[in-house]
Amino acid sequence: MNPTQDIIPILKLALRYHREGNLDYAKYVYQHVLGIDPQNADALHLLGVSVYQSEQYDIAINLITQAIQIDSTKPLFFTNLGNAFQKQGKLEKSVQAYQKAIQIQPDYADAYYNLGNAFQKQGKLEQSAQAYQKAIQIQPDYAEAYFNLGNSLREQGKLKESTQALQKAVQIQPDYADAHFNLAMLLLLQGQFVEGWEKYEWRWDSSLKSQKRNFKRPLWDGTSLSSKSILIYAEQGFGDSIQFVRYIDLFPDTTTIIVACQPELKSLLKRIGRIDTLVTKGEDIPKFDFHAPIVSLPHIFGTVLETIPAKIPYLYPDKNSDFAFLSNDERDLKVGIAWAGSPTHINDRNRSISLNNFKCLLDIKGCEFFSLQVGEHHRDIKQCGYSRIIKDLGKQFTNFHHTASAILQLDLVISVDTAVAHLAGALGKPVWTLLPFIPDWRWMLNRSDSPWYPSMTLFRQRKREDWHSVFQEIRLTLIQYSQR
Prior knowledge:
The chain is α/β, with parallel strands linked by helices. It has helices at 3-19, 23-36, 41-53, 57-70, 75-87, 91-104, 109-121, 125-138, 143-155, 159-172, 177-189, 193-200, 238-244, 266-269, 297-300, 348-351, 380-383, 400-408, 419-426, 467-482; strands at 229-233, 256-261, 277-280, 290-293, 333-338, 367-371, 390-392, 412-416, 431-435, 456-460. Helix 1 (3-19) packs antiparallel against helix 2 (23-36), helix 5 (75-87) runs antiparallel to helix 6 (91-104) and helix 6 (91-104) packs antiparallel against helix 7 (109-121).
């Protein structure tokens, strides 16, 4: 009897369990096969895939590599090896694995697609676009390849081509929520608010759907709220909550407003008199008639460029702050800085920067610098050797009320696109916001001001990854500003 033939039905059984999502039993059966035939490349590969799906990437790489050593003719082995390397951030190794898969099978659309992903993560946008286009050439109905092509083209500043690619993804797959959502951000970036806000609602079926809250009471659709109550709840990041809490002022005086916010914002938002009840995670929510996620308010109110609510300030921190400035000279310009946002943000690679970029500002006469940076990055001050030049306020902050109270005592804030910039803008404090080549949708394009924050000036990259030119422009502007 041929043991290899005996193994085939067992492997098929394991595959069935695997496809049904029963990974533990699938692994057990794969291991059983390997007990019979330790050199079975398919079993080694599939066991590697199953542990990959359990996020055990080192083990997956080891197993798939063993499979390749036994049988190096199967492109799928190399593709899954590349996927495991990509999860580990070993992008060059993942590129090599995908290229080997393509060498074996030149019409392998998935390998080109994954190669495009790896190139995109490396910042090799032109090469990523070429890989996606090759995948599409092989498989013209590849909606995901059109989607990622659209994202790559957007990062390159090719907005028309990006829009066309995303529209093609939606044409192929009309319920492709992430493609609709990314189209929304492209439209908003270009100031097309009406269609942009409408498509932005697709986020609840996209990769952000886990943030959706399900209530028995109806979602507010703009109907009269006179003598009614509404729950407005936070979603996404701190910056979104700070930016859109301004809409509270648009509700009728007879409406009872309940706001559910992030814990870090509670002590700051409770000073907004128009909010009747403020709750945060773990606290009971009073009864309400309607609810609305906070970033849906611009859509419901039908906001266009000319009707953005820009009554500033709309946040009111305690002016009697515990954060006293030990200034060497009261005539000096007090400048707050922030250089990094949340590392989990989808675009953090482009928006956060090294503190060393600020070096060209630190010798400007008549300026004192204060860090508003929170989290692990406040340690950058010591690591960069700036402890005597930059006063670290951020290490004292435990919530945004602390940050806001400190900002009130400053003359100027210079920040990357993070919550600090929103906070300074909402307080009406002069703030210079540093933007990557293609910024977040809310900052739009080709303008140095923000319709959301009248006190904000936008400093934009003119070339991808070129922060040097941005800081040279800021240096000249700050020299002039400090001499006023």
